[in-house]
Amino acid sequence: MILVSVGTEQFPFNRLMQWMELLIQQELLDEEIVVQYGTCTFLPSGTTVYRLLKEDSFRALVERARVVIAHCGEGTVLLLDELEQPFILVPRSVRYQEHVDDHQVELALALKQMGVPIAWSPGDLVRFLGAPFKTSISDVTDSSAQSLCRSLHSHFPEP
Predict the structure, then answer these.
(1) Alpha helices in the chain (DSSP H)
(2) What is the C-alpha separation between 45 and 153, in angstroms, rounded?
(3) How many angstroms separate the CA atoms of 79 and 8, rounded?
(4) Could you tell me the pTM of the whole model?
(5) What are phi and psi of 155, to 5 degrees?
(6) Per-chain mean pLDDT for the chain
(7) Backbone φ and ψ of 42, nearest 5°
(8) Half-sphere exposure (CA, 13 Å, Cβ side) for 47?
(9) Torsions phi, psi of 71, nearest 5?
(10) Nearest to 80 by CA among 92, 98, 102, 63
(11) Distance (Å, rounded) from C-alpha 81 to C-alpha 100?
(12) Residues 95-112, buried b or exposed e (16+ Cβ, 10 A)?
């Protein structure tokens, strides 16, 4: 089973829902898909959907999932890291009116350097879904964290 979660943000994340629909239509996914859709106004066909999930229900679905596809929200990232299931993150972007700023893009760039699978396109989802792997952000060394900060600063210099 694949669990897709977009959190509870006030902005729809229809882009991820449309990516999932595309993968379903192209018959690239052949398993149960459960979607926590929040405020999305587009839902992928043939999926089991929940607007919201209580934390215990969400945890149970994560533990049952072969892989989790989730937005790159800080709380979601920390919970997925704690539960030790394979996951793929998709950052929300202000460009698509999915959030008020690009902090999820910034976090995704940092996490990508730590080996966390980040999907920037439907093709990335296909690649990561073909061979999901567990990753952890808790194993970061001080030198890795400093390198990450320097990299982020070069991408997003202070005004």
Answers:
(1) 14-25, 55-64, 74-83, 103-113, 122-130, 142-155
(2) 41
(3) 14
(4) 0.86
(5) -80, -35
(6) 89
(7) -125, 130
(8) 26
(9) -65, 165
(10) 63
(11) 25
(12) eeebbeebbbbebbbbbb
* pLDDT exceeds 90 at position 62: yes
Helix residue ranges per DSSP H, 102-157 = 103-113, 122-130, 142-155
pLDDT single digits (tens) 79-115? 898 888 999 999 999 888 898 888 899 889 988 988 8
Provide the token pair at 122: 């439907």
The whole-angstrom separation of Cα 136 and Cα 111 is: 10
**Cβ-count burial 6-33 (b if 16+ within 10 Å, e if not):** bbebebbbbbbbebbbebbeeeebeeeb
- Other CB atoms closer than 10 Å to residue 117's CB: what's the count? 22
Write out the two tokens for 77: 């990232």
As a whole number of angstroms, the distance between CA 34 and CA 100 comes to 27
Q: Rounded to a whole number, what is the largest CA-CA distance in the chain?
A: 47
Which range has the worst mean pLDDT, 37-46, 49-58, 90-99? 90-99
Structure tokens at 142: 């001080």
C-beta separation of 41 from 14 below 8 A: yes
CA distance 129 to 25: 16
